[in-house]
Design brief:
By secondary structure, the chain is an alpha/beta fold. It is built from 17 helices and 15 strands. The strands form 2 sheets. A 9-stranded mixed β-sheet has the order 14-13-12-11-7-10-9-8-15. The chain binds nicotinamide-adenine-dinucleotide.
């Protein structure tokens, strides 16, 4: 049974930082300038960070926590094999054992890669314990969690970053440069989505549901919005010169999970006969204050050949981009009604981060994006600088989870998206 978080204990957790707020300072590193970092959750995602982390000579992986012993020892082994000291292990005392790890004085930062349902609670605990947090996506799953996370960051003054790696894809950053250079004119529309048949990770081999499967069984709405909405929000300068105002969401019927289960476990299996609340496809329309519209799709239960898991289209009043065909068009540079290959502009608008770190990044997972997430986090921690993807962006992108569900429950009604930056 998962740990449930409710409004009261969330507010208590967030408020716990208040007493230390006056003295809290960003934890940066030890006297030698090294950063001591822990990994919380060493499953598929957490483990994929380890080779990158082990390659950072200015970062020590001092502790790892996972409730599954096999995952913990596998992760410790990866670090050792990379020639780094074996991290101290936590997790054998159960789901709250991470709190023992957070008590460690020799720890500056925690990377949280546990199931999504636990991110907000664990992030708030880590912030209150004086640690910087790099949280996997999404940041939170309820509006109370979103508010609690914002308050915890504000009260502790600690660094919080969302590990939204798609924002660091090379093409995504090049598009950001083109937007900033004015090539698209004013942005009016974006179409984006997470469209990835993930049913193979919804069930364990014995037929029980993984945490992703539990989400599909118990929730409606867009359950994984940050990969597509993160880049679009950055292109549209959301939470700076524009902001999300409202959304409307619709969902299809649910057939994909049961069909998959019937093939895997038999048509008469309990898994095939179970009810899954999550519709196969959920579409959300978001309106921004400056009058742009975003169509955000979420589908992890429909079979289809895969070009990309995160397709993007961007429309401005002077340019357009389509990532699926890898084509671009600019009124100022292209022939009328004639798409051009994105590659024609890629080098000119390559982002400085990629120019600087191409060699190191290209050896790492997710096309190098994971390298930048980690590098940017540690650089901000060391310098005491701003979070590259701060808590306001994190919750603005993540609140689509509860708000899309609310819209669907209310018969596709418009739902306001709060301005988390506005002080109460
Ligand atoms: N950014 C990306 O590209 C990307 C890709 C995959 C997953 N993710 C995110 O990463 C997170 C983890 O996904 P995953 O695929 O690795 O899942 P996973 O199930 O493979 O791993 C989760 C791990 O957390 C451990 N865990 C669960 N509860 C714990 C607790 N209380 N204390 C300590 N350990 C605990 C589990 O034993 C498991 O090893 C998810 O939030 C997911 O959304 C992001």
């Amino acid at each position: 049974m998962r740990n449930q978080i409710n409004r009261r204990n969330l507010l208590q957790l967030a408020g716990a930082g208040l007493a230390t707020a006056a003295v809290a300072r960003p934890a940066r590193a030890d006297a030698s300038g090294r950063i001591r970092c822990a990994l919380l959750g060493a499953g598929g995602r957490g483990t994929s960070f380890l080779p990158v982390l082990a390659g950072f000579q200015d970062v020590d992986i001092t502790a790892i926590c996972d409730v599954k012993e096999a995952h913990l020892t596998r992760a410790q082994g990866i670090v050792e094999k990379a020639g780094r000291p074996r991290p101290v292990g936590f997790g054998e005392k159960g789901p709250d054992d991470y709190k023992r790890m957070l008590e460690s004085k020799d720890l500056d930062a925690v990377i949280i890669a546990t199931p999504m349902q636990d991110h907000a609670r664990m992030s708030i605990d880590a912030l209150n314990a004086g640690k910087a947090v790099l949280s996997e996506v999404a940041a939170a799953m309820t509006m109370d969690e979103c508010g609690g996370l914002v308050r915890a960051v504000e009260r502790t003054g600690k660094l919080y970053m969302l590990a939204e790696n798609v924002c660091y894809y090379r093409d995504v950053l090049a598009i950001l440069n083109m937007v900033k250079a004015g090539l698209f004119g004013g942005l009016t529309y974006a179409e984006c989505g997470y469209v990835h048949d993930c049913r193979f990770i919804d069930f364990n081999p014995d037929g029980s549901l993984t945490w992703r499967g539990e989400l599909a069984r118990d929730h409606i709405g867009n359950l994984y919005p940050t990969h597509p909405i993160g880049p679009v929000a950055q292109w549209m300068d959301i939470n700076r010169s524009d902001r999300f105002v409202s959304l409307v969401s619709m969902t299809s019927r649910s057939t994909g999970m049961a069909r998959w289960a019937a093939k895997k476990f038999g048509p008469d299996s309990p898994q095939a006969k179970a009810t899954y609340k999550k519709g196969d496809t959920t579409s959300t329309l978001i309106q921004t204050a400056k009058g742009a519209v975003i169509h955000l799709r979420y589908d992890t239960a429909s079979p289809h050949p895969l070009h990309t898991t995160t397709p993007f289209q961007l429309q401005g009043d002077a340019g357009a981009y389509n990532s699926s065909t890898n084509e671009i068009w600019f009124e100022s540079r292209s022939e009328w009604e004639r798409w051009e290959p994105f590659s024609k502009y890629a080098a000119e608008f390559d982002h400085p981060l990629w120019k600087k770190w191409e060699k190191e990044a290209s050896r790492t997972s997710h096309g190098g994006a994971d390298f930048f997430v980690l590098r940017e986090f540690f650089d901000a921690l060391r310098s005491g600088g701003k979070s590259p993807i701060d808590v306001y962006d994190a919750v603005t992108w993540s609140c689509i989870i509860p708000l899309s569900a609310e819209s669907i429950r209310k018969g596709n009604a418009p739902v306001a998206i709060p301005d988390f930056k506005r002080k109460a």
